[in-house]
């Protein structure tokens, strides 16, 4: 080999990496011991965010074509399932952070203002690449969600709003599913009939249940009527379109049919990979919801009702974001 032998520390650029922890508290002459932990955990988050973006972009490249072969679909599933595994590490890092006490955090917290997680451009890129729209986010001010970012980061994040997203590509991919009508079999008609039988059976169970009194039967029948209205909208394309317009639904009607078929017939070999793809997307959504919620609990534990360093309502904003900011 003509080139110099590759050295471990040079390959990983450990000189740069291990010198990137600059304690703000140290600049004031009183370095806080736990600020090192705080910096390293958040730097690790950003490294994992970079890997998550790498996996999302890999899946997007595979799905952004008019035909996706089964082998390629398997690679997309692998990308997404890796993200699910990374999310477990993100949660474990909160366990490490919680070894720091609230008083330990207060030793250096004021030195961080106004820096905060709001300024993580990579996190916003993840949300946008998955398919979160500006209006989908829980807002704590009237300002745009990019208002806390510097100009280069804001431009990069805003540009990602109009690029290819996992949601849009999966929706298009679902709409191409060929098995909705297959020979003499009409999946949607069969599903409609099956739902009708289920609802009729549920009504009979309530009406004929000897353990329920009249008031309890009336209450359960009222709830059943809401379920019937919900399903009726699925089978009426016009009514479903109104739900999309109002924001109550997002997936197109054709894509919805395909998603239902894939879930119901997931054990068929030809539909097993498509099912894993859909499942992994829901797992990712759930994983980020869990991470946000754990983050909210940690913030409540650390600062209670105090305002966050970024000026938000701290744990209350984070909790509402966990409940609201979802894609799939």
Q: What does this molecule look like?
A:
The protein is mainly α and 328 residues long. Helix content is 65%, strand content 1%. It is built from 15 helices and 2 strands. α4 runs parallel beside α9 and α10 runs antiparallel to α11. The longest helix is centred in the last third of the chain and has 35 residues.
**Rounded average pLDDT:** 91
How large is the share of residues in beta strands?
A: under 5%
So how many helices? 15
Structural class: mainly alpha
- Count of extended strands: 2
* Assembly level: single chain
- The best one-word shape is globular
Low-confidence stretches: none
Rounded to the nearest angstrom, the distance between the terminal CA atoms is 50 Å
Could you provide a short overview of the structure?
The protein is an all-alpha fold.
Which SSEs are present, and which pair or pack?
Elements: H1 8-11, H2 14-17, H3 24-27, H4 35-63, H5 70-97, H6 102-106, H7 121-130, H8 151-159, H9 166-175, E1 181-182, E2 185-186, H10 187-207, H11 214-234, H12 237-246, H13 253-264, H14 269-303, H15 315-324
Antiparallel strand pairs: 1-2
Notable characteristics:
328 residues, two-stranded antiparallel sheet, 2 strands, mainly alpha
